[in-house]
Amino acid sequence: MYTFVLELKKDETVDTAIKQMKEKEYFQKFIKEYKNVLLVAICYDSKTKNHNCKIERIYL
């Protein structure tokens, strides 16, 4: 079973969002129960009106 942690950012990179989730350990309360956690970063660029997404899997 998987669970996911979602980070939404405006005018930031997806790498910044993933880094923040790892540094602040947002996934810790889920990892013991689910074993596999997906970190999902979705970022919006207000100048170009584009969205970017990155998904990274965290294993126990």
What tags apply to this protein structure?
60 residues, alpha+beta, 3-stranded mixed sheet, 2 helices, 3 strands
How many domains is the backbone divided into?
Answer: 1
Order of helices and strands: EHHEE
Mean pLDDT: 92
Runs with pLDDT <50, length 5+?
none
Q: Give the strand line-up of the largest sheet.
A: 1-2-3
Helix content: 25-40%
Give the N-terminus to C-terminus distance in angstroms: 13 Å
Taken from the alpha-carbon principal axes, the silhouette is elongated
SS-based class:
alpha+beta
Return Rg in Å. Answer: 12 Å
Describe the fold and architecture.
With about 60 residues, this protein is an alpha+beta fold. It has one domain. It is about 30% helix and about 50% strand. It is built from two helices and three strands. The protein has helices at about 15-25, 30-35, and strands at about 1-10, 35-45, 50-60. Strand 2 and strand 3 form a beta hairpin. The protein is elongated, with a radius of gyration of 12 Å.
